[in-house]
Amino acid sequence: MEYVAHETQPHNPNSKTRVLFASLVGTTIEFFDFYIYATAAVLVFPHLFFPESSGSAALLQSLATFSIAFVARPIGAVIFGHLGDRIGRKATLVTALLLMGISTICIGLLPTYAQIGVAAPILLALCRLGQGLGLSGEWSGAVLFATENAPKGKRAWYGMFPQLGSPIGFILAASSFLLLGAFLSNEEFMAWGWRIPFIASALLVFVGLYIRLKLHESPAFQNVLNKQTASKVPFKDVVSTHLGKVVLGTLATVCTLVVFYLMTVFALNWGTNVLGYSRDDFLKMQMVATLCFGLCIPLSAMMAEKFGRKRTSIAICILTIIFGLFFSTFFVAQNAVSVLIFLCLGLGIMGLTYGPLGTILSEIFPVSVRYTGSALAYNFGSILGASFAPLIATKLAETYGLYAVGYYLCIAAAVSLFAFVCIRETKDDDIMC
């Protein structure tokens, strides 16, 4: 798709409140949609879409569909990155939100294996593919829109608002399943109750679209349009000129995503199926721990603003390695207090790693290819760090024990530590160019 500005357009500034709320609400919706799938992939889909397999095989097949979205995300990064760097952040954000929302609603309407046979898991996989494509364009665009509208000295603070959508979306997702569990029997929940969060997401999508359609383009990208300097083929320019930054950005993302999916999808599966905690009890503990996740995001953003992105991220990676060495110490059966401490520590560390990440990925690329570059780095990082993390962790835990999962986390943190050592400090850079 081509766009050329034939005349200079004045920039209409967005209000601070609208920018921050639009960045937050969109990612909240996206992550709500994503997390209800993650929860259902453990609790529901093995029974309704893969019933012909044994219990463990059905779970692994269900988690495999969870991984499909991550494999699709680099493709979405190229598509939405091209749109974001050619026609603008606003239009691309609206499109990404629509794709994610429609895919999620369709999951709630799917027939099960008992109704249409093998076509059911195939359709589930296709919807999951749509979710992955939508999220690949949403996250990067929301972070860019926030940081490119930020005043001087506030980019890390603005850039963390889209990150807050993750814990908020998780709390909404977990709450919806807890409410369903409270008011429905297990039979009712498995028969039709699980569909409610997927279909109800339509309301959230409508709210997100309404807010985003009222935004103006970011000042940094409006400047590109006015000067007619938009990249003709952003993907080509990124690969030919900024490939090293993509690689470092990818590696920097790995730790964040490994720790998150270990503390959510893997922990929920292991805690309910192996350690013996009930679904409701474990979801409640995860919700409490998610508050630590949310509180640590602005904390790390303030640290990145004061001490720099590089030093802050290096320190957090070292903290993650220490946590990984003690991974199996607290995650035990018949001790809810110990598990709650484990979840709070893990998701708190997740918040620390996540807070400045979006700002870092946006600042290392020039504005003309910033959407494509940051989207590629984040989504390739999703493949390495998140797509198979629940599967790898499950196999490690079954074969060697939970301590091996901790070592897996240590390796992921060491990979990101290496990347942050190599990435230059961007705190004082001018992101208008």
From TrEMBL:
It is found in: Cell inner membrane. It is a multi-pass membrane protein. Keywords: Cell inner membrane, Cell membrane, Membrane, Transmembrane, Transmembrane helix, Transport. Its main location: membrane. Residues 19-427 form the Major facilitator superfamily (MFS) profile domain. InterPro entries: MFS, MFS_dom, MFS_sugar_transport-like, MFS_trans_sf, MHS_symport, Sugar_transporter_CS. The chain crosses the membrane at residues 19-38, 58-81, 93-116, 168-186, 192-211, 246-270, 282-301, 313-333, 339-361, 373-393, 405-423. SUPFAM superfamilies: MFS general substrate transporter. It holds the Pfam family Sugar_tr. Signal peptide: none annotated. PANTHER family: INNER MEMBRANE METABOLITE TRANSPORT PROTEIN YHJE (PTHR43045:SF2), SHIKIMATE TRANSPORTER (PTHR43045). This is MFS transporter.
